[in-house]
Amino acid sequence: MKVKTVELKGNKGVLKIEDTDVYFVNSLRRVMLAELPKLAIDNVIIYDNTSALFDELIAHRLGLIPIPTDLQTLVFRDQCKCEGKGCPNCTVRYTLSKEGDCVVYSGDLQPEHPSFAITENTIPIVELMKDQRVILEVEAVLGRGRDHAKWQMVLAPRYRMETKIQVDKKHINEVKAFVEELPKDLVELKGDKLELKDPSQKSILESYLEKHKADYISITKDPSKLLFSFETDGSMSAKAALQESINILAKKYEEFRGLLKDL
Amino acid sequence: MIELIIPVRCFTCGKVISSLYEEYKKRYEMYQKVIASGQKPKETPKEILDDLGVERYCCRRMIISQVDLLKEAAPYE
Amino acid sequence: MTRYKCGLCKKAVQFDVKNIGMQCPYCGSKVFYKERPTIAKRIKSL
Taking the domains of chain A in order of start, what are their residue ranges? Predict the structure, then answer.
């Protein structure tokens, strides 16, 4: 297998994986969606809420805020020594107290420890009018994407097979006429080969092929060459999320091998 | 229930879009003002969304189609 | 006796639960908000 990093900075990652199979990259994709742990607000203790939104709606909105997660220092609550009571090892607490006229932002959540301060701090939670107020306390715990989407760190992980556009040499004049019909800067005709200028525009070319019934041009996909791209919601960098999901996948394969040994 | 306030995340992919909405709204109002006065705007809504890094059309529809109604409901508890 | 807040004059009033046809003794309004209990409410974020 060959891996080339096209882009891996901030919240975005694009990898070019060659000499592999679709099922392998798909298993990585599924680990990213369902297995990668992340902090999210779970319990909300509301002391006062006279705003226009219901308590439950505010709790739901709070749950979706991305919280910077350090998996080295935190453990799952059901695996913690405190036996589910909630201690600093498994729980991060925030308090929020605000009175109108104002907008309550995610940055108004005051952490117990400054290292858990919320980075995405311009998410509006609720708008308060004069004499309205919100006082609440929240607990954030680790969770996995398979339990609730608020614990899903990686968004839109996807892969695309490399495509080749083949041209029938006998119909080269028809191909030339077809290329003339296409929008500018979509494809380039190099000798008897067609090349897409931007690989993500493939579907546009396909729609033109269908419209013109151009059966002298065929698109073939190569399942051993994949372009894998993903994004994170900001609670972890793309690089850290990728490394962490690969560790989880390796652990799963290791566990499976251990089970097979005993057969 | 009608969304009174911009949803925190995109319904389809989960990208946090609410933090970009206020900026979009500010720049969109600017665009509308310039259009109303008959001049050529500095940027179109498409360019604003591209600049904010909203790539996919699922996230774009979240921002474009939002109607703020919380102010209407705010007087009631 | 349950505590309510008048929807028009915002004054705190008390009524018996059995009472039918509530009316504010100050302004005569018939719209009331039930007062929020002072105990903290613990909910799950779903």
Answer: 2-34+156-228, 38-149
Stretch C4-27: mean pLDDT, rounded? Answer: 83
CATH of A2-34+156-228, one of 3.30.1360.10, 3.30.10.20, 3.30.450.40, 3.40.50.300: 3.30.1360.10
Domains of chain B from N-terminus onward: 18-73 (1.10.10)
Q: Is residue C46 part of a domain?
A: no
Q: CB of A91 within 8 A of CB of A106?
A: no
The whole-model pTM stands at 0.85
Q: What is the pLDDT of residue B16?
A: 93
> What's the pLDDT at A259?
93
Which of C40, C44, C45 comes nearest A47 by C-beta? Answer: C40
Q: What does the longest C-alpha to C-alpha distance in chain C come to?
A: 42
Give the relative orientation of helices B18-36 and B57-64 as an angle to the nearest 10 degrees: 60
Residue numbers of chain A with a pLDDT score lower than 50: none
Chain-chain contact of C36 with A49 (C-beta, under 8 angstroms): yes
Any domain includes C26: yes
Please report the DSSP string for C1-46 in residue order.
-EEEEETTT--EEEE-TT--S---TTT----EEEPPPSS-EEEE--
Proportion of chain B above pLDDT 90, given as a percent: 73
For chain C, how many structural domains are there in total? 1
- Residue B69 confidence (pLDDT): 87
What are B31's two structure tokens? Answer: 């665009």
Q: How far is A78 from chain C (nearest CA, A)?
A: 16
Give CA–CA dist A169/A212, Å, rounded.
18
Give, in words, the CATH class of A38-149.
mainly beta
Residue entry with tokens 């695309």? A160
Q: With beta carbons under 8 A apart, name residues in chain B contacting A127.
A: 5, 70-71, 74
Give the residue from chain B lying closest to A11, CA to CA: B15
Contacts A148 to C, Cβ<8 Å: 46
**Domain limits for position C8:** 2-34
Contact A65 B70 (CB under 8 A): no
**pLDDT tens-digit map of A104-161:** 999 999 998 888 899 888 999 998 988 889 999 999 999 999 999 999 999 999 998 8
Residues of chain A positioned with their CB less than 8 A from the CB of C40:
45-47
**Shortest Cα–Cα distance, A213 to chain B (Å):** 28
Q: Quote ipTM for the complex.
A: 0.89
B4 contacts A231? CB cut-off 8 A: no
A232 Cα to chain B: minimum distance (Å): 8
